[in-house]
Specification:
The chain is mostly helical. The chain contains six helices and two strands. 64% of the residues lie in helices and 3% in strands.
Length: 144
């Protein structure tokens, strides 16, 4: 199938498409692709003073003790996926939990909302499904 030789796009459309692709990849457990696309979407959006989830992630990471094992910096997994490094050193393998993908996708969606004051139906649907999943997990743990 042959597409157009080029397309006109903009930050809003490109970041939305990246987030949508991240949602699709996350549902297939392609966490590397989901995280990379969501991080790209978040990164291309303009800076904003509006509240978004990355601020909370940075605050949480800063509160962790220095001797915390594994990735501590909010961008450790993103950096490994882009450069193959962890704490400045080449690293051949990594373990990526599915929650890491959820966090990076939510960072992108919440920044998109902070910038544009709306989200797409796909973003809203994903956020609702994840909320329901987390509520169910919490209820299951409370029942044990």
């Amino acid at each position: 199938m042959t597409g157009p030789a080029s397309i006109e796009t903009n930050v809003r459309l490109a970041s939305m498409r990246q987030i949508h692709a991240a949602l699709d990849h996350h549902s297939r457990q392609d966490y590397e692709c989901a995280i990379t696309l969501a991080a790209a979407a978040e990164g291309m959006l303009p800076a904003t003073d509006g509240p978004h989830f990355h601020q909370k992630v940075k605050e949480f990471a800063a509160s962790l003790p220095d001797d915390t094992e594994g990735a501590k910096n909010p961008n450790d997994v993103i950096t490994w996926l882009k450069h193959g490094t962890y704490k400045g050193k080449k690293c051949e393998t990594a373990t990526i939990d599915h929650s890491e993908g959820m966090v990076v996708i939510w960072r992108a969606i919440s920044k998109y909302f902070a910038v544009y004051d709306e989200v797409s139906p796909q973003m809203r649907s994903w956020a609702n499904a994840i909320r329901d999943e987390l509520v169910a997990e919490k209820a299951a743990k409370a029942g044990n």
